[in-house]
């Protein structure tokens, strides 16, 4: 099963948070994997996208999903000059880790920049580690960024703003289980408590 790239974007005041009726219908009827129940977010256990990436972390190491096995991985696409959505997403991740207590230590966060022209390794490192020293910033070439976004059904676009630009982008947090399987998409408008409730189910999968 393959889903189309979501055709919407976020701006400073307008979020693409996923969870549209079309997405829900596209996911209906898939029953190959163990089901997560009573979720606040979207169950992606049986989709066939987001299977891997090949990017570079802020320390210069090449990374794939396999590097994060053993942890429950939260993946968010954004950019460091984002005025509100991206810092909110990363701050919420720190709240979720705290809410989960000891289990929160099993969570890893990967922030994939959609603005590699400005988000250099040093910029990425300063940004993500300001939220949590364990967070990882990931980047690629323009071509790698485009491929990764396509593979994850993520929309992004450069929007001119005077002499500079901002970025519109999908605002979902993807959650992988400890075996590296995509399980959830969490919407930006969910609370930290709702995130934690869903992630507990993923943690329970082992």
UniProtKB/TrEMBL annotation:
Keywords: Copper, Disulfide bond, Metal-binding. One of its GO terms (molecular function) is metal ion binding. InterPro entries: SCO1/SenC, Thioredoxin-like_sf, Thioredoxin_domain. Disulfide bonds join 82-86. Residues 44-204 form the Thioredoxin domain. Belongs to the SCO1/2 family. Cu cation binds at residues 82, 86, 169. This is Protein SCO1/2. It comes from the Bacteria. Pfam families: SCO1-SenC.
């Amino acid at each position: 099963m393959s889903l189309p790239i979501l055709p919407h974007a976020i701006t400073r005041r307008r979020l693409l948070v996923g969870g549209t009726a079309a997405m829900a219908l596209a996911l209906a009827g898939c029953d190959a994997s163990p089901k997560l129940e009573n979720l606040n977010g979207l169950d992606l256990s049986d989709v066939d996208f987001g299977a891997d990436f090949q990017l570079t972390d802020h320390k210069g190491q090449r990374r794939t999903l396999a590097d994060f096995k053993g942890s429950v991985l939260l993946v968010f696409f954004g950019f460091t000059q984002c005025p509100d959505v991206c810092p909110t997403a990363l701050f919420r991740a720190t709240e979720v880790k705290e809410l989960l207590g000891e289990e929160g230590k099993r969570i890893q966060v990967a922030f994939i920049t959609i603005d590699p022209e400005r988000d250099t390794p040093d910029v990425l490192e300063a940004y993500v580690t300001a939220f949590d020293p364990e967070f990882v910033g990931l980047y690629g070439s323009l071509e790698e960024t485009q491929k990764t976004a396509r593979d994850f059904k993520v929309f992004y676009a450069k929007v001119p703003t005077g002499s500079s630009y901002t970025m519109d982008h999908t605002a979902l947090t993807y959650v992988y289980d400890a075996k590296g399987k995509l399980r959830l998409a969490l919407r930006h408008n969910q609370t930290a408590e709702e995130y934690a409730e869903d992630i507990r189910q993923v943690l329970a999968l082992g």
